[in-house]
UniProtKB/TrEMBL annotation:
<dbReference type="Pfam" id="PF00348">
    <property type="entry name" value="polyprenyl_synt"/>
</dbReference>
<keyword id="KW-0808">Transferase</keyword>
<dbReference type="InterPro" id="IPR008949">
    <property type="entry name" value="Isoprenoid_synthase_dom_sf"/>
</dbReference>
<dbReference type="GO" id="GO:0004659">
    <property type="term" value="F:prenyltransferase activity"/>
</dbReference>
<protein>
    <submittedName>
        <fullName>Geranylgeranyl pyrophosphate synthase</fullName>
    </submittedName>
</protein>
<dbReference type="GO" id="GO:0046872">
    <property type="term" value="F:metal ion binding"/>
</dbReference>
<dbReference type="GO" id="GO:0008299">
    <property type="term" value="P:isoprenoid biosynthetic process"/>
</dbReference>
<keyword id="KW-0460">Magnesium</keyword>
<dbReference type="InterPro" id="IPR000092">
    <property type="entry name" value="Polyprenyl_synt"/>
</dbReference>
<keyword id="KW-0479">Metal-binding</keyword>
<dbReference type="InterPro" id="IPR033749">
    <property type="entry name" value="Polyprenyl_synt_CS"/>
</dbReference>
<comment type="similarity">
    <text>Belongs to the FPP/GGPP synthase family.</text>
</comment>
């Protein structure tokens, strides 16, 4: 499949059908971010035009294939809602993380400033809410619950674990709320409006929760091991901004035991001044070579295995096979 997602689906006929629907979603998405005000229009199109994997719309469309109305307008609108919500959250996240790049382009706040970026994110959330309202009250409740989890994830990431909390478990909950919640909702809404059975809806939503966390763990690895052309982010940005990631949290756990002085030394350098590019590059290289990167990758792979096991109740065939290939592809990016 050579869709905007660059993620494979198992069956070529199914892949072609979904690729055609993704094109329809893309048209609706661009219409949804259009504004009469030139400044708002430019800023709102900024990330949409930069592309992206579109994995949330893809998962919604794939989940819809479990029912009899997979190609309905409601399914297409559900796919637009989840991508609009995702785009809106990126505007906010990049401001909070001071991220200079997104999808290979300057982050919106680097172009228009923090105030514009935050307000454009709010406007996109409003457009997502307007679109989901056409799907009915159940979809509105689901969207509101997802939005709440997105906010909680960002809040808890910002405040960090409380005294006595396990930092790794706290981080996994942040990922579940900040990333996995919307991926699960993508699958849920797609299956619901595709006409799937209630059992299938719950199955794919649970699948989405697992692969959502796995996806972010794979991104943690990519932030350390890939170049900016692959990840769309400047390597080491999270380190410089001291954004928690799984490899760093695992390293801190090891350093706390005192078993290897080199671990404590690396933690001390991570906590030091990383404003100098040469210093950051050396810390990045040392962390890349550390065993915690492999452990993070293994955690992601284990979550994918759990997600695939959850698919057992679904009927065998190209749709189920495509869920498996979809999940595998998310983690293979970090291999």
């Amino acid at each position: 499949m050579t869709s905007p997602t660059a993620l494979p689906l198992a069956d070529p006929v199914l892949a072609e059908r979904i690729a055609g629907r993704l094109d329809q979603v893309e048209e609706r998405l661009r219409a949804a971010v259009a504004y009469a005000d030139p400044l708002v229009d430019d800023a709102a199109h900024h990330l949409a035009n930069a592309g992206g994997k579109r994995l949330r719309p893809l998962l919604a469309l794939l989940s819809a294939e479990l029912g009899a109305t997979a190609g309905s307008d409601d399914v297409l609108d559900a796919a637009v809602v989840v991508e609009l919500t995702h785009l809106a959250s990126l505007y906010h996240d990049d401001v909070m993380d001071s991220a200079p790049m997104r999808r290979g382009a300057p982050a919106a706040h680097e172009v228009w400033g923090n105030n514009v970026a935050i307000l454009v994110g709010d406007l996109l959330f409003a457009r997502a809410s307007r679109t989901v309202a056409h799907l009915g009250p159940e979809a509105v409740v689901i969207q509101a619950g997802t939005f709440e989890r997105l906010c909680l994830g960002q809040l808890h990431e910002s405040t960090g674990p409380g005294e006595g909390d396990d930092a790794v478990q706290h981080y996994l909950q942040v990922l579940a709320d900040k990333t996995a919640s919307l991926i699960a909702t993508s699958a849920r809404l797609g299956a619901m409006y595709g006409g799937a059975s209630p059992e299938a809806v719950e199955t794919v939503a649970a699948f989405g929760e697992r692969i959502g966390v796995a996806f972010q763990l794979a991104d943690d690895v990519l932030d350390l091991t890939s170049d900016g052309d692959v990840s769309g982010k400047t390597p080491g940005t999270d380190l410089r901004e001291q954004v928690p990631t799984m490899p760093v949290l695992l390293l801190r756990e090891r350093a706390a035991t005192g078993a290897d002085p080199a671990d404590a030394d690396l933690v001390a350098r991570l906590d030091g001044d990383l404003s100098d590019d040469a210093v950051l590059a050396q810390v990045l290289a040392d962390l890349r070579a550390h065993d915690v990167v492999r452990e993070t990758r293994e955690r992601a792979t284990a979550l994918v295995s759990e997600a695939v096991d959850l698919l057992a109740p679904l009927p065998d065939g190209p749709v189920k096979d495509s869920f498996v290939s979809f999940a595998d592809a998310l983690v293979d990016r970090a291999s």
